[in-house]
Structure formats: C-alpha cells, structure tokens
Amino acid sequence: MGTNLQEILEEANRVLKQGGTLLVAEVASRFEDTRAFMTAMAQLGFKSVSKDLSSPFFFLLEFSKTAPPRPRPCAGLRLRPCRYKRR
After folding, report:
1. CA-CA distance, 39 to 69, in Å (whole number)?
2. pTM here?
3. Do the Cβ atoms of 13 and 68 come closer than 8 Å?
4. What are the record keywords, sorted (predicted)?
5. Helix residue ranges per DSSP H, 34-87
C-alpha cells in the first residue's frame, strides 16, 4: 500500500538472501500493465516463480531473488490507487 514502490522492493531485495522468496499479493485493479510490472521486477533482481491471475480481485505473484537491483528507475512499477466500492 506504500507509494514508494521501487524503494520498498529494493529494500526487499537487500534483506533477502540469494534465492529468497518474495510474495506479492495485490488488488488486481491496481495493475496498469502486468507484463511491464514483471519486467520491472526483473530489473530489480527478481525472477518470476509463479503467478496466479485467476481471481478478478487479487493477484498473487511469487518471485525469487536472483541478483542485486540495477540502479535506475523502473517504469513498470506504477500501480493505480485502490478503488473501493460502497456496499
């Protein structure tokens, strides 16, 4: 839910050991482009292990740390604000 997504993921990379697992569970409507997000995660040193995009509400993505992040901004790390519905 943070707004500084790149810094959050760089810190996750820093604290994980090589081969460590990062799980991302996020509201599906926040993703603008899932493919661009996956490419950006590769730039941050994570390899996609599995992804479950079957739910219309939440995406579950699993990554493994493969390398330190490349020191540049990752364009695909934009997420939309959450859309809440009144019920």
Report:
1. 12
2. 0.85
3. yes
4. Methyltransferase, Nucleus, rRNA processing, S-adenosyl-L-methionine, Transferase
5. 34-43
- What is the spatial distance between Cα 9 and Cα 55, in angstroms, rounded to a whole number? 23
Q: What does the pLDDT average to over 15-42? A: 92
Q: What is 5-68's CATH superfamily?
A: Vaccinia Virus protein VP39 (3.40.50.150)
Per-residue confidence (pLDDT) for residue 85, from 0 to 100: 65
Distant-in-sequence, close-in-space partners of 64: CB < 8 Å, separation ≥ 6: 19, 20, 21, 22, 46, 47, 49
The helix (run of H) or strand (run of E) holding residue 63 is strand 58-65
| pLDDT over 90, % of the chain | 56
Residue count of the chain: 87
